[in-house]
Amino acid sequence: MKSHRARVAAALVLPLALTACGATPDEVTADGKVVLTVAMDAGLEAKAVEAFNARVAQFEQANPDIDVKPQEYTWTAATFTAQLAGGTVPDVLTVPFTDGRGLIERGQIADISGQVAALPYASSLNPAVAKAGQAADGKQWAVPIAAYGQALHYNRTLFTQAGLDPDKPPATWAAIRSAARQITERTGQAGYAQMTQGNTGGWILTTLDYAFGGRTEKVDGEKAEATIDTPEMTEVLSALRAMRWDDNSMGANFLYDWAGINQDFAAGRIGMYVSGGGNYGNLLTQNGLKPADYGVAALPLADKPEAGVLGGGTLAVVSPNAGDRGKNAAVKWIDFYYMGKLTAQDAAVADAKTLAETKQPVGVPALPVVDRATYDKQQEWVRQYVNVPLGQMKPYTDAMFDQPLVTEPTKSTQEVYKILDTTVQKLLTDRGADIAALLKAADAEAQHTIGRG
Amino acid sequence: MAAVVVPPPPAPRRRTPSTWVRRGGLTTLLFLLPLLLVFGVFSWAPIAQSVVMSFQQTNLVGPVRFVGLDNFAQVLGDPLLWTAVGNTLWFAVLALVFGYPIPLVAAVLISEVRARRGLFSALAYLPVVVPPVVAVLLWKFFYDASPSGVFNTVLGWAGLGPWQWLQNPGSAMPALVLEATWAAAGGTVIIYLAALAGVPAEQYEAAEIDGAGIWRKIWHVTLPRLRGVLLVTFILQIIGTAQVFLEPFLFTGGGPANSTMTVLLLIYDYAFASSLGGDYGAATALSIMLAAVLAVLSALYLRVTKSWSAS
Question: Where does the secretion signal sit in this chain (chain A) (predicted)?
């Protein structure tokens, strides 16, 4: 009887033991090459995949000791850690600025600061942008490869239908309010809409807070304090409330996330909304935007010294599962593939040519990752391939370099965004919402979260 | 209880490994092994792992720290938990009030129909065939809060609306229940139809001879015969509604202002919404608590209804 039980117990325990197997760092091929898996955007056109593979071949030729294996991968916050633990994350991948600091603090990406410091442009990275990939001690754990500032996107066709001049988009928040009212009155569409869901509500509310001269947290060394209950945030919420409840110019959907608002904007249901300055690419390729509809303007800033534009972008990072050889190879790849098209003429032209051939947008406004001189040169190299309506982006591109860029909050960023999601949702769906009480509650909750994090 | 004389069982013979093998124990184990492995790897091991994880602080990458009951204390101290519990109960109540009787009524009506019964059963079952995510996306169009939304257009014909549906904290949850009922009713209808087919026709005939109308037939014949099935579907519905996730996740993300935040969505949020590794300890702690509550509830329910279900 006992032995029978033991057998059953063994049968039950065996699977547990089987699941406890782990991954080993730095896979090496039979001929001694280090294997490097690199992220390739999921769902690329066949030509783009071909171009990617061609770049891989070039890289391998220049680096005979590295065997590059492309892996279709697009970063999503929800699945990242589970994939990391399961060993299915590529060695090199890209993540948004928002999560850079958190990943570094939790040791969920590799410290490649030593290798990055050796890159020729390490010291000339745009400081406002480089910060997103730095640890608290200033070491560059992640390489910024693209950057943008938030902007006001608007529908030129709706502007015209509403009797507004599409070449003169609103330059103040009061002007945004009156334009929104006019669009709703004359076209029946939402004059101004805002994201509220999946942490994007907090992201955009923080953007507006910065534009009004506020900050959502104050960091002093190790200590961080939530600063949500402020006169600036009160102003932001009052402006939104006026549009929502006095003018009824914010449409009927108050549960937008990034994908949803892009979809409705491209479909001509939204007059204006705030999002990243480089959003044109997604609107065009994923949502079927008619290029003639599109306009983008600089985000109106309050007349205060602290008022600024929230910046964002993309970081190239390395999986913590990579060993030393893997890390060296990874930084070489980042330098070759991501930074090459920003710093070297051949790579920049080849990249722009492929994009243009596959009907992907070339010339979408972006902020410099390296110094301005290199950026200007890069723009010149790819000029002949530009296929976006640059004239319609002028209200943004004329002002984007003059607007002060402010990085996202660094402490418990996503968690605080989530708290602010609830704040903005409550404001937009409950007519009786008390702004002072909302901010007091959000401030206390954020303080608790930051303290715990 | 009838007095039945049960013969005493034969004295058990000593079982040695060799008798076990001779009686085909090895073959049994061999046949059982694939099942044990599959269940072990994909069901029991994750459950065991999550119980362990509920006492740990981990981001799955860095070192693991045992924190005792801290995760449980943290979850119980989270004000959002009580909002989620309240919302889940609200969903369960609404789903019971609307979702429980509708399939029963539909099944009784279909069973009463003489012609094209198969067609009506198929129509009732159709929503179950639609993939849940597709159904939700479809209903998102129906619930579009602008005057051009499908439901609002229909209401507009009667001079009503536009209603806010998902965009209002008060109406969001009932809107989710409506879709969930539509999506799930078909499966229950089929179960009831099968049970109804087992009701002997003579009983209806006898009731008819006694002068019973349709309602009296349902009350005195149909429902008593269905009692066992009704009790099982009731507890399954309670367990199902306590674990509601898909609708709030896809329709509202828990909004507006947490008015559709449910316990399971909160578990998901603990683990995944904060990105960067989330709070797996808190997520598993709340999962264990939910499982425990449901297990206790089911046991109590079965005990209480044991005497009722014997027909």
Answer: 1-22
Model confidence at A175: pLDDT above 80: yes
Question: pLDDT value at position B277?
Answer: 57
What average pLDDT score do residues B218-242 get? Answer: 87
Of the given ranges (B26-30, B184-188, B307-311), which has the lowest mean pLDDT?
Answer: B307-311
- Chain B residue with minimum CA distance to A7: B29
Confidence class of residue A1 from pLDDT cuts 50, 70 and 90? very low
pLDDT of residue A13: 46
Distance separating alpha carbons of residues B101 and B188, to the nearest angstrom = 10
Report how far residue B227's alpha carbon sits from residue A51's, in angstroms, rounded to the nearest whole number.
66
Residue B128 CA to residue A244 CA, distance in Å, equals 38
Interface of A with B in 89-128 (CB under 8 A): 99, 102-103, 106-108
> Residue A28 contacts by C-beta under 8 Å, 6 or more apart in sequence?
A34, A35, A325
Burial per residue of B14-38, b for 16 or more beta-carbon CB atoms within 10 angstroms, e otherwise = eeeeeebeeeebeeebeeeeeebee
Confidence band for B13, pLDDT divided at 50, 70 and 90? low
Are the Cβ atoms of A15 and B167 closer than 8 angstroms?
A: no
Mean model confidence pLDDT for chain A: 89
Dihedrals phi, psi of A192, to nearest 5 degrees = -140, 130
At residue A15, the pLDDT reads 42
Cα B35 to Cα B41: distance, rounded to the nearest angstrom? 10
Please report the pLDDT score of residue A11 as a whole number.
46
Distance CA A64, CA A31 (A): 11
CATH pick for B70-309 out of 1.20.58.1000, 3.30.1330.10, 1.10.3720.10, 3.40.50.150: 1.10.3720.10
Dump strand ranges (E) for A57-142.
66-72, 92-96
**A2 pLDDT above the threshold of 80:** no
> Distance between CA A251 and CA A375 in Å, rounded?
39
Of the CA atoms within 13 Å of residue A81, those in its CB half-sphere come to 23
For A250, the closest chain B residue by CA position comes to: B146
Torsions phi, psi for B8 (to 5 deg):
-65, 140
Residue to substitute from B18, B64, B272, B275, interface A, most A β-carbons within 10 A? B275
Cβ-Cβ contacts under 8 Å for A349 (sequence gap 6 or more)? A381, A382, A385
Contacts of B143 (CB under 8 A, 6+ apart): B149, B151, B165, B166, B175, B251
A186, A163 contact by CB (below 8 A): yes
> Least CB-CB distance to A103: which of B144, B166, B276?
B276
Give the model's confidence band at A280: pLDDT under 50 very low, under 70 low, under 90 confident, else very high.
very high
Distance of alpha carbon B157 from alpha carbon A318, whole angstroms: 58
Q: How many CA atoms lie within 13 A of A231 on its CB side?
A: 3
ipTM: 0.80
Amino acid B250 reads L
Please, what are the domains in chain A? Answer: 25-148+312-385 (3.40.190.10), 157-309+410-452 (3.40.190.10)
Specify burial of residue B300 (Cβ count, 10 A radius: 0-12, 13-18, 19+): exposed
| Least confident among A160-169, A297-306, B221-230 | B221-230
**Is A122's pLDDT higher than 80?**
yes
Please classify residue B126 by burial: count the beta carbons closer than 10 Å to its beta carbon, then call 0-12 exposed, 13-18 middle and 19+ buried.
exposed
Pairing mode of beta strands A143-155, A66-72: unpaired
A87: contact with B, CB 8 A cutoff: no
The residue of chain A with its CA nearest to that of B143 is A253
| Predicted confidence (pLDDT) per residue in A149-173, tens digit | 999 999 999 999 999 999 999 999 9
**How many Cβ contacts (< 8 angstroms) between chains A and B?**
135
